[in-house]
Amino acid sequence: MTSTPHFSFPPSFVTQWFSRLQPPAWAVEEAQRRVVLFLNHVLMQEPQAQARLAPHAGRVVLVQWRAFNIRLAVTPAGLFDVAEGEPLSDLTLTLGDTSPLELAKRAARGEKPALRIEGDVQLAADFNWLIANVRWDVEEDLSRVVGDAPAHAVASAGRRAAEGLRQFVADRRADR
């Protein structure tokens, strides 16, 4: 005889309650500024990326995922700044995967997330180029802090862990 549980964990009302929680405005603004600092750090390591973005100075890219969004204004230097106010966006990128787990699975498989793109075609093409070609050189940044040899060891371990995770996801997918 099979029986179904009378309750689920976590209860649906808890899930709904957490989904309605919104961080305070100051925390959202600070998180957005940190994201922009990180993006600019990565872009500054790629002069070609800055050169591709610079002609789009003044344009605004809206990136949306679930209830979160960030408006990025392109600067004349080919970097980003948080777009103040509610300017119209020239390009809107909406992540299609609403589940953080699904996003993580796609990343582990080395896949791009499902993305809906609306707006300026040339800006979208250059943004797509950035996504395809610009990578954060973690090892280089880490070597500035701990030295070359330890940075190489940590980066190698990270690559092995990522490959193991990719393999695990692929195996689990094949078992279905």
From TrEMBL:
GO terms for biological process: ubiquinone biosynthetic process. Residues 39-128 form the SCP2 domain. It comes from the Bacteria. Signal peptide: none annotated. PANTHER family: UBIQUINONE BIOSYNTHESIS ACCESSORY FACTOR UBIJ, UBIQUINONE BIOSYNTHESIS PROTEIN UBIJ. This is SCP2 domain-containing protein. It comes from Paracidovorax wautersii.
